[in-house]
Amino acid sequence: MELIRLQEVHKVYNPNTPGEVHALQGVDLTVDQGEMVAIMGPSGSGKSTLLHVIGCLDQLTEGTYLLDGLPVQEMSQKQLAQQRNRTFGFVLQDFGLILSKTALENVVVPLVFDPQVPSNEMHSRARAALALVGLQEKIQTSVTQLSGGQKQRVAIARALVNSPKVILADEPTGALDQGTSQEIMDLLVRLNQEQNLTVLISTHDAQVASRCTRVIQLQDGKILQGQ
Amino acid sequence: MKKWKVAWGQLKENPFRTLLLMVELLAALVAFNLFASQLSSYHSAQTLYEKIPGNPYFCPQPTLSNDSDQLANLTELFQKQYPDLEVIEQGKVATLQDITINSVDTSLYLFSQEYVDLVQYPLEQGQWLSDCAPAGQIPVVVQHRLAGSYRLGESYEVTVLYGLTLEDASGETQYEHKRIQVPIYVCGVLPNDLLILPDGMVTDRLPGMLGIDREGLLDEVNVNGSYCLAYPSSQQDVENILNLSPTAMSLEEMQANSNRIMLQNLTFPLLLAVAIVAMCLTGFLGQGLLTLMEKEKQFAVFFLCGATTKDCAAIQLWKDLFLVGLPSVGSIVVLFLLYRMGKISYFIPWIWVASVLFVFAVFGLSALPVLRGLSKRSPVAVMRRWI
Predict the structure, then answer these.
(1) What is the number of CB-based contacts under 8 A between chain A and chain B?
(2) Can you tell me whether residue B178 is helix, strand or coil?
(3) Which of B78, B243, B331, B345 is an S-S bond match for B192, by CB 3.0 to 4.6 Å?
(4) Of the partner residues B306, B309, B380, the one whose CB lies closest to the CB of residue A114
């Protein structure tokens, strides 16, 4: 089932200025539910921008974006925030965690902004998400005391806690050693297979890309292959 | 409602800093309101001056004497100062006076009927010096600070010291003073500690009550009026006063003197309030600026997880409510207790509300740059700075 469709999508930063940048140029892309897609390309090719546009963190300048059949470019800021909260889960290269909080407190954050989640269910859901990534014994541990791999697991748990349809991972293994990278990829593959979760990973690591069912090559904001 | 938990969690991240801020805020609110109380007292005094009749009614003054010293006669002095002075009665005169400022003895200032009719005090409770007292008791109104000890509608006996000048057949005068028990009945309570004394001076520094002796219960006392003059309570005081040159001040001079004293009393509270408020404002704004980076970073994560700018503003608002609200409640408790204990003359609710809102606005200002920036930039632009 088609989940994401991008048609002739352009993203321009600083338009009509000397610093104008065409980050995405006429991108056409479809992603079905349950796919695990790697987006590869050199630095500056537009990988992160593509993920940001797909994840409703940034808005396209031109083109059409259908998310589960709904036109994203017509959504309000509030609706875009709801999509970030309920449809997507984000995993970032440097984890994107609140360092002054515990693992549990970080994982709870998306549930705070979902009015459909009762207050008394937040902690139980967060515990379940941490158990899913194998961190049930680190619930009350401060994030600063966790290893890189554990931090990334916490980030993945946060991305999963609100049962999203899509996980968007921007260089999720970029700050990890090889062994830990392998563990993180094993986790993402398991989630993709067991829960039919759609996973999009931006990476320049061929080994990471090899774990995915499809690889998209991006260069200078254009898809070269795999769209 | 879940956002208040996030806000509370942010405050708990650094409990020492949070507690320090709250204590500073509590001190600032109390100091500012204490100053406001003193200032209100001063302004109320100005209003009361307008109620004083142009020519106070005086009895002939009492005289001081001992066995060998010359008597000081102030009547001529007063009549020189007040050409229109109306002398009500000559002859025996005494005042009821005890200037010892302690918790045992309280000054009782007796007015004449004419004075009572002319000067209408605003009251917090009860009624002015009317016929409200049972027989055999002197109706009084008490200062706010005394209301806890002398309750409305109750009877008491107060110990007062009075001086008495007696004239014998040969024209020699003698001065005596002694303590007497005076039965009083509390008819009313003044809204503060300001008193207009029989000589026209306005003060809040002396503990006292105002009364009128219509039944002549104090038969040794001239009930047609009394002076507010300092009377000695010891032989040393007698000698000290005798060494002074008798002086008299006009009504305007007395009021100016009273104002000067009250303004002097305002200086320290003003300086204290300014110092504490300045310190706290610096602390608040500094704290706000220092935590700007922390705030923006956390807001970036919130955006990632589906928050809007309004969500972030709501969390900030809850945080400010806790930070300002808890000390505000503490300050109103402290100020109310001080007022009930008679340590301050005024507790003015609207000034307290204004001071709380002012502090709240300062906190809001410190968060404004962050929130404005968030509303203008896209979430990814915010995140790119920190994540």
Answers:
(1) 73
(2) strand
(3) B345
(4) B306
